[in-house]
Structure formats: structure tokens, C-alpha cells
Amino acid sequence: MMKLSKMHKRLLALTAVLPMAAMAQDATQANTEQTTQQAAQQPVASGQLETVTVTAQRRAENIKEVPVSVSMLQHEKLDVILSGGQDVRVLAGKTPSLNVESSTGRVFPRFYIRGYGNADFSIFASQPVSLIYDDVVQENPILKGYPMFDLANVEVLRGPQGTLFGRNTPAGVVKFESAKPSLKGVEGYYNFSVASHGTTNVEGAANIPLSNEWALRVSTLRQHRDDYVANGFTDGRDSLDGYNEHAERVQLLYQPNGTFNALFNVHQRTTTGNSRLFQANIIKKGSNQLVDNYDEGMVFTNGQNYQNLTTRGGNVRLSWDLGAVKLYSVTGYESIAEYNSRGDIDGGNPVYGPGVVPFQVETASVLPDLKQYTQEFRIESKKAGPMSWQAGVYYFDEDATGGSDNFNTAGARTSRVISNQRNKAWAAFGSVNYAVTDALTVRGGLRYTNDKKDFRTIEATGTTLQGPATINAERHKTNWDLSATYAINPDVSAYARVATGFRAPSIGAPSASGPATIADAETITSYEAGIKADLLNRRARASLSIFDYDVKDQQLTVVGGNSNVTALINAEKTKGRGIEAEIEGFVTPDFKVSASTSYNYTKIQDPSLSVNKCAQCTVVDPINAAGRVVIDGNALPQAPKWIVNLTARYNWPLAEGNLFVLTDWSYRSKVNFFLYEAKEFTGAPLTEGGLRIGYNWQGGKYEVAAFGRNITDQRRITGAIDFNNLTGFVNEPRQWGVQLKGLF
After folding, report:
1. Which residues of 110-144 are buried (b: 16+ CB within 10 A; e: fewer)?
2. For labelling, which of 37, 338, 383, 392 has a CA lying 20 to 30 Å from the CA of 101?
């Protein structure tokens, strides 16, 4: 018999304890005979929570009945965190086990779920967290930064999701769903805010029925921030860290009858401004604190800093009701027409420093051409009965050309390396749900994937290409998952799930400083169990999950060390385990609170792995005979052990409307910036708070509010470079603003 780990035993114990843990609540509700479905159909009374419907299993289901650890952000929660023109990085810490960061600013986010992600800044990087926007996977990291506006909801699915979602989902999925056109009538909204540093955020949408069969929805976003950081090396004027962004989405619905539905979507994004501002020697030697004379509004760089991005895309979603089954087709196309992000990476200059700047580093990432095409066909059962199923096929085709430039102190380009990657993949998948009894449902899924990458370097100017000019990799894998959901009573359910995941080999592009590298495919086996409950006659909702996972051959990115390059490696094994909890509810009909937390423990297990050490930092890991840092036993980069989120909202009904105050707080514990541990490159714990005071009237049709983000102005180093000096970058500053929004 296979020996069980301690965590596996805990999971089995939890599944046995969950029914007993709910008996106390069951006793207080012994006279309640409604089914979960009937409860969901009840109108929501004052002081009761709405039923949350998610599509974690590709069907609309009550969140309580889904055997996955999943969170949803929608309505006011989204509006609050986006009020000041924030990008997708604002999602960091807003749900359990989710972190988002970037060393490139607004356009290249990196997602981590349960500590599992990828710190690679290469334009060809792959990530184990999949981002899906309107049913279309956004594979390239630059595509993952498309702005959040006119959204119906954001779902965060934790753990492997590879059975039902295509492309690299071993860590989980972040799923965006935009608001859809409707035939019901003309409606829409407008949202306008102004805030610190000349920040403006203008957002709006209009839904227009064109006939009894056609409807149009147009959505737009405009964001701007003034330059507010001065460059003391040049003229000292505010000339950096501003941005201009606009994005549009047009959707057309065709619904001629009750059996066919067609939804057409075209969208684009244009962003100009600055890349991430690196500031030289802002980290105090021997600690992870900012230097005493740190000035957030001043840099001393002698290089250029700018960023330009244009993306365009479209998709067509079709559905047919064929009686016993429904057929779906999702066709997606995404493209990058321009991407150029240039920065002075050393963050200083040889004259004024500040501090010691051993050598100058100014680089740019360029991606002038990317095209991604996806196609999925899916069929699902419709007939009522104990068994339901769905099956489908998926195709992915990406063609990307880009690379990197290096510049000298005069700003002239000294080298360029351009490569092309063609990635094709296809998959077949299916899943079955079976209601063993009215209370117990079991689910199983299977997916076969074939993934092929062809990589070639097509230009190497001003440098001698190191390593091979072409790399080819192809792998196939069958993944599966098995889960069970048990309805303890109409308000409480427990679940357990075992799932596997797969990420195809990744290829790291060459540069003037290093060759192309390849990391072999990685696999994950994840165990999870949890309980979900509606409490106190639906005045509150709570969930708890525990998990344990093993990643074999995990793809890791060695960033920096002794040069400004990335290199891909595989770790023999990575362990992860933890717990996630969420609760929200009404203390009174006018006072609503929510809280969530997660604990994530990660550990690299590979005694053979070592990496180059930093230039000036204080390493705390062992150093081997070759002078390299041994990383065995370290936590994964950007993987905080603790994430906590708290929200409270109080409402005062008035004669003509409602006055309210809302505050939200997020906390994450310390993180490692790199694979090795160093005193200077361990990000200190970060707490950010928000405040919102407002008034709405005419049933919430209109609202005006004053808001603040990061109201304590806590500044923390959130990333660094390690190959030159003690250069770092920090989180966003405090922001105050006012907002006006209305519905029509």
C-alpha cells in the first residue's frame, strides 16, 4: 500500500470530519427542507447575500456546489479597487493565495497562485497561471495585462484546472468575463474619477438593442497619470512615471431564437508612458529597508525610459441548443502590433550614482509581431438525470517574433537579438458528473494534450550568438482529475479533489549576455478538500480549503546573478501546502464585512541546484565550492506565506438616498525576489489600505464618492536587480481622489 504523507492524511481526516463539523448547524435548521436550488431561486431579502454563480466547471453553478477552491470579485468590490486607474496588479492579495507583480510596470503582469508562478521577464515566458478573458486564453504575459473595465466578474480558480481549460493551468486560472449585450433595452453606465498626480480614469458602456434579434454593447476606458517623478541627473523636472492608456471593446449579439446564439467581440488596447522605474542603491545594506534618505519623487538616471504597446483581438462565441445536447464554438484571435519597453536598469549614473553603480545597463524588450489563434469546440449534455457530461477539442497556434536591445551610455543601440517562436498545441478533453444520491455527486475529467514549440534566432547584431540558433521541443501528456461533493444539508457542502496538471517545455530567448535555454515539461499532482456554507439564513457565507501539491521538474527562472539575463532550469521537486478561508456576511442589514486569508508553504527540493550570487548583497544561503548559491530548501520567489484581506462597509439610509463608508485592507507577508535568499532581496511585509466615503441616490443609480488608496502611504521594495548594485523599485504611492458614476 502506498504510504500517505502527513498532508494527505490531514486531507482524508478533513473529509471525514467535515460532515460532523456541520451537524451543529444542521440541528439548528432541522425544519429547513428546501433544496439548494430552491434556496438559490428565492428573492434576496435585505441583509441577505446574493447567490454567487461561477463557471469553474464550464457550466453556471452555485459556488457552494463546485468542488474547487474558487473566489469571485464583482460589483462594488471591483469598482473600489479600480477607482484610481489601477491595472491588473491590483488583484494581488484581494483573494486568498493570489499574488501579482511585475518588473515591467503595467504591461507585463506575473501571476502566482498558492506560491506557484514564474518570475521570468522574457517576452516568450510561459506561466503556470492561465489568464482567460471572455473564454479565450491570453498566453503571452503581455496579453495578460489587458485592462479591467465593464466586467461582469473575475473568478480565481486555485489548483490545477487543465481538464476543462486549455494551455498551462497547473497553478490555477484567473478568469475575466465582460458584461454582455442584452436585448432587454437601452442601458449603460459612466464612471469618472480624478486623483493624485493628475490621475484620471474614465470608463463607460452603452447597451443598444438594434432589433428583436440583434444587440450592441460598446465599452471604453481612458486612463492618464501625469509625470510626477523628477530626474535629478538631467533637469530635475517631473518627467517620469506617467502613462496614457485607452482600451475599447465592441460586442454584437445575435439571438434569433431560443436555440442559437452568436456573440462577436472585437477589442484593442494602446498604452504609452514609462516602464518600471529602477532606483539605484535604495536598499539599505544588510537589510531589506529603504535607505534613510530615500526620495520617492526623484531618480538619477542617465538612460531613457519609455513604453509603447498596442494589442488587438477578436473572438466569436457560438452556441446551439440541439435538444439533448448543447454545442459551443469559441474562436479567438489576439495580436500584439507593437511592444517596446526600454529602461535604465541600473537605476543610476556614473557621476552622481547615487551610491556605487559599477556599470551601466540600459536595455529594451521588443515584440513587434505576435499572433495567437485559438479554437475550441465543446458539447455538453442537457437532458435531466443523474449523469451529465461534456467533451471537446482545443487548438492553439501562436507565432511571435521579438527580442532585446542593449544600449551604451550615449543611448545608441549596441546589440540586438531577435528570435521567433512558433507554438502549436491541440487537446481533447471530457468530464462526467454523476449524482450517486441526492446529496453525493462525483466528477471525473480527462485531457490529452500535445504541445510543440519551434524556436529560432533570426538576428544577432553587435554580438556573437551563444548556444544553438534553433531549439525544438514537443511533449504530450494525459491529465486527469477526480472529485466528490457532498451536500451535508441544503446550506452546507463538503468536497474533496485530486487533480494533475501539465506545463509544456519553455524556451528562454538568447540575449547579448547569454544563450537560449530550455526547461523540460513540469507536472503537478494536487490534493484538496474543503467545506462551503451559507450561514444564518443566508446572512453570511464561508468557505475553508486545505491543499497539498507536488511539482515534478518545476520550471524555474534564474534571474540576474552576474548579468542581466534569465536562464531556465528544472527543479527535481517542489512541495506546497496550505489553507485558505473566506467569510462574508451582514452584521446588520446596513453593516457588511468580509475577510479572507491564506497560508502557503512552498519548498524547493533539489540538492543539485545552485545559482550565481548577487553583486553586493548579503546572501544567507550556503555557498558551494564553485562559489554558487545552493537554493535547496528555499521558498519559491514571490510566494508570501500569508495573505489577509479585510473589508467593511456601513450604510446609513437617508430620505433620498444612502450615505456609506467603506474600508478595505490587504496584507502579504515577506517574499523572496530571487531563487536564493539574501537580506537585501527579501521583500518586507506589505499592508495597503483603502477608504471610500460616498453617497448614492435613486436606488443606487447615481453615486459620488471620495476615496483613498494605500492611505497609510506604506512604501515597500517590491522587486530588485541583483547583478549590479542595490537597485530596487517600490509599490504605488498613496492616492486620494473623487469619483462620480451613474447608470442609464
Report:
1. bbbbbbbbbbbbbbbbbbbbbbbbbbbbbbbbbbb
2. 338
Cβ neighbours, 10 Å, residue 95? 26
pLDDT in tens, 322-359: 999 999 999 999 999 999 999 999 999 988 889 999 99
Domains detected in the chain: 53-743 (2.40.170.20)
Angle at 727 between CA 506 and CA 197, to 5 degrees: 100
Name the grid cell of 565: 539575463
The amino acid sitting at 189 is Y
568's grid cell: 531556465
Report, in this order, helix, strand and coil percent for the chain, each rounded to 5.
5, 55, 40
In terms of Cα–Cα distance, which of 744, 742, 743 is closest to 193? 742
Q: Which grid cell is 200?
A: 484620471
pTM value is: 0.92
Q: Return d(Cα 471, Cα 516) in angstroms, integer.
A: 8
- The dihedral formed by the CA atoms of 669, 674, 680 and 685, expressed in degrees to the nearest 10: -10
At 304-318, the pLDDT tens digits run 999 999 999 999 999
Contacts (Cβ under 8 Å, ≥6 apart) of 284: 290, 291, 292, 680
Strand, coil or helix: 279: strand
Residue with cell 532550469: 569
**Is 559:118 a contact under the CB 8 Å cutoff?**
no
Which residue, among 184, 224, 175, has the nearest Cα to 207 in the 3D structure? 184
